[in-house]
Amino acid sequence: MLKKGPKADSISTFLGPDASVEGVLNFQGTVRLDGTIKGKITSSGGTVIVGEQAVVDAEIAVGTAIVMGKLNGTIDASDRIEVYPPGRITGDIQAPVIAIEEGGLFNGHCTMAPRAEPVKKVKPFPEKTASDAKTIAN
After folding, report:
1. 95 versus 115: which is more confidently predicted?
2. Residue 90, Cα to own-chain centre: how many angstroms?
3. Would the pLDDT of 27 be above 70?
4. Which CA distances in Å does 96 have to 22, 77, 110?
5. CB 103 within 8 A of CB 120
6. Banded pLDDT at 113 (limits 50, 70, 90)
7. Which of 38, 95, 109, 137 has the most CB atoms around its CB within 10 Å?
8. Contact yes or no for 93/78 (Cβ under 8 A)
9. 63 close to 77: Cβ distance less than 8 angstroms
10. What's the maximum distance between 2 C-alpha atoms anywhere in the chain?
11. What is the pLDDT of residue 10?
C-alpha cells in the first residue's frame, strides 16, 4: 500500500479549485494544485500534487509528482510518480519509481529509468608526431 502523499504542513504553495492558470509555473518545495492549469510546470527537485479537483493540461518536469486529479500531458520526474484514485493520467510518464494505486488510471507510455545525464563531449587526445616519439624514447 502506498503512503498517502506529503503532510499538509509541508505544502509551500496552494492553488485552489476556483483558480485558473495558463503559462509557466516554476517552483521550489511542494505545490498543491486543485484548480485548472494549462502550460508547463517545472521544479528542480520539488514536489507537485495534482489534487482531486484539479484539471491539468501540462508538460511537467519535477522531482516528485503525486496525481489524484485529472492530468493530460507528460510527466518527467527525477524521483518518483504516484497515482492515487480517482487520479487519471493521459500521456507519457518517466521516473525511476512509479506507483499506481488500485483505482488510479494511466493511459500512455511509461519509462522507468533515471533521467539521462547529458553526454559530456570529450576532447580527443592530440595525435602524436614523430618528434614526440623521439622525446618519449629518450
Report:
1. 95
2. 15
3. yes
4. 29, 8, 10
5. no
6. confident
7. 95
8. no
9. yes
10. 81
11. 85
Beta bridge partners of 21: 37
**How many residues make up the chain in this entry?**
138
Phi, psi of 128 (to 5 degrees): -85, 140
Burial label for 59, CB within 10 Å (0-12, 13-18, 19+), is: middle
The amino acid that residue 3 corresponds to is K
Long-range interactions of 11-16: CB distance < 8 A, separation 24+: 11/49
**Locus of grid cell 479537483:** 53
- Choice among 13-22, 82-91, 107-116, 125-134 with the minimum mean pLDDT: 125-134
User: What spatial distance separates the first Cα and last Cα of the chain, rounded to whole Å?
Assistant: 70
In the block, cell 496552494 appears at 14
What number of H helices and E strands is found in the chain?
Answer: 1, 12
Domain positions in the chain are 8-116
The strand pairing partners of 25, in sequence order, are 41
